[in-house]
Amino acid sequence: MDDAAVLKRRGYIMGINLGEGSYAKVKSAYSERLKFNVAVKIIDRKKAPTDFLEKFLPREIEILAMLNHRSIVKTYEIFETSDGKVYIVMELGVQGDLLEFIKTRGALHEDDARKKFHQLSSAIKYCHDLDVVHRDLKCENLLLDKDFNIKLSDFGFSKRCLRDDSGRIILSKTFCGSAAYAAPEVLQGIPYQPKVYDIWSLGVILYIMVCGSMPYDDSNIKKMLRIQKEHRVNFPRSKHLTGECKDLIYRMLQPDVNRRLHIDEILSHCWVQPKVRGLSSAAIHKEGESSRGAEPSRTPETPDKKSATKLEPREEAGPETQSEPKPNEEETLQVPVSRQSDNMDLNGELPGRVIEEEALPQP
To answer: Protein kinase domain: which residues (predicted)?
Structure first.
C-alpha cells in the first residue's frame, strides 16, 4: 500500500509534503480521531543506512515515547508496516520554524526572545533532568505553534546519557549536529560532555533570536574555531542589546567547558527572569564582558531576503578598539557575524551534520 492508504487505515487523511530526504519524508495529515492536523514522519528502512537503523532510530523512538513537555513537539503515535516503513505521528508546527520566522520578520525584541528562549530552556532542562540530550539544537528544529510558542523537535541525534560507577556522565564520542551550532570541542573531535554541548547550541540560538544573524561564519571552520576558542563574540550595535542579554550569550558561548553555564544557571540568569533586572556592571566585568550598561531594545531590522535558506552574512568585525565607536559598528564581546550552515535534508546527508565515531580534521 502507498503512504496515503496506510495512513487512511489508521485514521489519517494525508495532506501536503513538508520535507523529503533520501530515506525519510514528512507529510501533513488530518487526524480523524484528534480532529486537527498533524505531521507524519515516514522512514523507509529499506533505504536507510545501517548505523541509522541500529543506533539513531531506536534511540529516537525510545526518547519520543518518554517525553511529555509543553515546549516539546508531542508524539501521538508510532507504528510500522510489514514492508519496513516507520510512521511517527507528531504535533504540527503550524507557524513553521524559528529560522523562517526570523528571516521573514527580523530579529526578535528582547521581551519576545526572552519568552521563547525560556520555553526552549525549560524543555532542555526537562530533557537534561531525564539524562536526555538533544545534540542537534538549531533554529530549524524549533517549531512554532498557532500562538508562536516554541516546540522543540527532531530528536534524531538524541540519546540517553550513560553514567559510570561513580555516577558521572560518560563523555560522548559520536560527533553530530550542524557546524554553525556545534561547540568547539565537538568540531575538534574531542570526546565531549553532551549536556554541555547542548548549552553552546542554546547560545547560538539566542544570538540568532536577538541579532537576526549567525554569531560565527562556518564557511571556514579553522578560522571559526580560532575565534570561538578566543571567546570573541561580536554584537551588532544597531540592535542595542541590553548588557544582561549579551552577558548570557557570552557565558553560553564559553569555549572552556568547565566554565560554560549549566541549564539551571541559564534559567536563573537575570535576563531570563523577567522580574530580576539590572545586572551590575561589576558582575559583567568579572567575566570579561561588555562594559556598556543596559540599553533599551529597538525595533529590529529585517534581514536581507536574498537567500531563501540562509541568514545573510555580514562583514566581519575585528576586536573592539579603544576609539569611540561609529554608528552601526559591531561591539565586541568579541566574532564575525555570519551565515547559517548549509541546509541539511531530513537525513543529514550533506557534509557537517553527522560524523559517526570519527573526529573532524584538526584545524
So the answer is: 12-272
- DSSP string for 12-32: EEEEEEEEE-SSEEEEEEEET
Distance, in Å, from the CA atom of 225 to the CA atom of 207, rounded to the nearest integer, reads 17
136, 198, 218, 247: the catalytic one is 136
CATH of the domain at 78: 3.30.200.20
State yes or no: is 97 an active-site residue. Answer: no
State how beta strands 36-44 and 85-91 pair.
Answer: antiparallel
- Report if residue 269 sits inside a domain: yes
Which domain, by its residues, includes 36? 3-91
Residue numbering of the annotated binding site for ATP? 41
Please give the chain's pLDDT, 363 residues, in tens: 899 999 999 999 999 999 998 999 999 999 999 999 999 999 999 999 999 999 999 999 999 999 999 999 999 999 999 999 999 999 999 999 999 999 999 999 999 999 999 999 999 999 999 999 999 999 999 999 999 999 999 999 999 999 999 999 999 988 888 999 999 999 999 999 999 999 999 999 999 999 999 999 999 999 999 999 999 999 999 999 999 999 999 999 999 999 999 999 999 999 998 654 454 444 444 444 433 333 333 333 333 333 333 564 443 333 333 333 343 345 544 333 333 333 333 333 333 343 333 333 333
